Amino acid sequence: MKTISLTAVSVAALFAVTLAAEAQERGGVMTYGRYADSLFLDPVLNDANVDIWILSNMYDTLLLPSADGKGVEPGLATEWSVADDAMSVTLTLRDGIKFSDGTPITVEDVVWSLDRARNPDNGIWNFLLASVASVEAPDDKTVKLVLSQPDPAIEAALTVFNAAIMPKAAFEAMPGDTDAAKAEAFAKAPIGSGPFVLTSWDRGSKMELVRNEYYWAEGADGKPLPYLDGLTFEVIPDDATRILRLQSGEIDGAELIPFSRVNELDAAPGINMELFPSTRVQYVTLNVRPEIAGKENPLSDPKVREAMNYAANKMAIIQVVTYGVGTPMQTFMSSATPLAASNGPLYPYDLDKAKALIAESGYPDGFSTSILVLAGNQDEIGIATALQQMWSQIGVKLEILQVDNATRTQEYRDGTFDMRAAAWTNDIADPGQITSYFAYSPTIDALHSGWKSDEVDTLFVASQSEIDPKVRAEQYARIQEIFNTTGPTVPLYETPYPVALQDSVHGFVQIPLGNNIFRETWLEK
Amino acid sequence: MRARLRPRFPKCTNVRAPRVMLEYVLRRILQLIPTLLFILVVVFALVRLLPGDPASAVLGDRALDADVERINRELGLDQPIPVQFVLFVKSFVTGDLGNSIALKVPVSTLILERLPVTMMLTFMAAVFAVATSVPLAFLAALRRGRATDTVIRSGFQVGLSMPVFFVGLVLLTVFGARLRWFPVGGYGEGFFDHVYHLILPSITLALSLSAVLMRNLRSAVINVLDADYVAFAESKGLRSGIILFRHILRNALISTLAIFGLSIGTLLGGAVITESVFAVPGAGRLMVDSIYGRDYPVVQGLTVALAVLVSLTFLTTDLIQAWLDPRLKK
After folding, report:
1. Residue A163 above 90 pLDDT?
2. Contacts of residue A47 in chain B, CB cutoff 8 Å?
3. Which ipTM was obtained for this model?
4. For the domain A279-496, what is the CATH code?
């Protein structure tokens, strides 16, 4: 069996980019098979990955994420600088930038877009710009973000989809009295300044985009990007059908290839099986409240949690569920997250240690508990079944409850669940977001687990305005140490984004945050 | 009107027959109203009895309490249930089905976009099912107990016992990816392209229905074959074609037609999986996504639309049955 290491793939991807720099061909329409259709193409009000992951093809931001997902590159702004006191960011707009309808992008558009994005009444992403106190335009080329406190993640926040620049006049001309109503009308045929423009949308079936004639970036051949004339998204929910369409040559690429098919497609001639590094982590959340629904909760005992972590054979789960594609976790955040700790795999399998720990705990004879998994989700069912068998070795009897997503979310939010399978992907190239949800208790009670560490809470607040990178790194090292050793999760594995492409497709990248980037994609004829 | 209707009901020798028929149709349509009201109430209640709410479903695991509350307030879901129901019925009678919570477009638009796709798929499946099951059922019945009968029956048995998604994938692999006779899923553009794209899905969907129809029709034909009036017709020296169509088919079809009508509902249900496998943007997929997403307005609107559709199918099959056998009109 062929194993593909992430490093090898990243190196290969870099090489591909370097090689591609010499031989791009222009033209053609690329068809990409997606597992689900988008819902709502408003950068601020959307709330699903099916939107987020393609938005950057239609909308552009002041800054862009780098291909490795950790850094920041120029976008609509060519230069930017953070003030010495870290209380403001000044950005210079690129010359001659236009929206896809040909109207110039002005500082008014930028101020309006960022004000809309940070409005606490708009959507669920405004927290990313929470440090911004006001957005000003000192002149018609300059935008100044005045901050209420120093924000080490502000540059990264300006690359996130919700900070996209939209045309104020076109948006406000939309029918409707409220921002939400106007957004609904606007998002049907968005006007942005990304490399592509949406021209038709058959809901549940197909989206057609053409190249944006006004896109600012230049390709390696000195002519404007994108290389493609057009881009078509086809919705093919069934994994097997999506792969079949790729194999029959009807589509040029297919996302979310099941791990069980990765090796087969990697060996298939004419198909390039890509595993793009991601920020996706798979884990189990444990409810650690002393009581759940009036009953004593064994999961509140730290020794029990530690025992369960050691008894979970992650390498076996990686083999069974991800067919060896996944890698063990070294901290609660993915290794592609800035400041992620790397001290070797967490809780390597050690059954003897697990047995000793459970014997020392308040539950030496074991106990019964349950896990919520999504009905029909083979990965989660596989994980739960493996854990059921592994934990039976230390006397933990696990009941697997298959439910639908809304039911699980309800129990999760109410804090009435015992355990649940879960996955996470970052939306910003900064450890702040994941830490806020996982470890900082005021956000959502640390994954709705009821876990709380005063030290973590204090460190997190401090880290959110710490601009000395060294101090911030230390703060994050400590936060991770506390969470990893006493936290409310059983970390399982990280997985890349499995995308299968025809060999003729070059320059496509899915960055660690999940964004599908087609701006430098080209088709070999 | 009367003169035109009459030839369609050749067995109705009674002069008042068309009028009876018309009254029957009207009565049946009026009966739809309480049925639909009942469905409306049940769907409204059921979808709200499910755990979880639209805001949590839409926002997912990361939703903050404040966001969920804000969205529920915007959707009017913070109101007491009876108030919500009154508001719902009020806008419903004016033809306003509300907006989809997840997709932000009017439910009526979604239904008009997606339901015709499913209707076409179901219709084509029904045509395939009838076109294969009727001749083969006759053949099997006429060759009862012989090799032909056994082959036909076991063939359909296999069809009946194979899961839809499996059949779909086999057809896609063989006729789509390998032989390239048909597209590998999708829906195409323009009417004829749609029909072309729907051939494999409708065959898949037709398979289990045609098996049921074939078995039923075969035994019905066998029963009729043994009937005295067939023996009488034969002894009169009628041509076998006339016996086959006028005496055997007509009588054998009655019970099969009832099953066919009832199966349309099942067929619509089967369309959910078929649409998923073949990437057909139909109402089935929309329904499943909307239930998972707790998209109340879509679930409500679509259920009512489907209920009307199924009721109309029942009505049509009842009418055809009544035409075949006037005794059933009472």
Report:
1. yes
2. 58-60
3. 0.78
4. 3.10.105.10
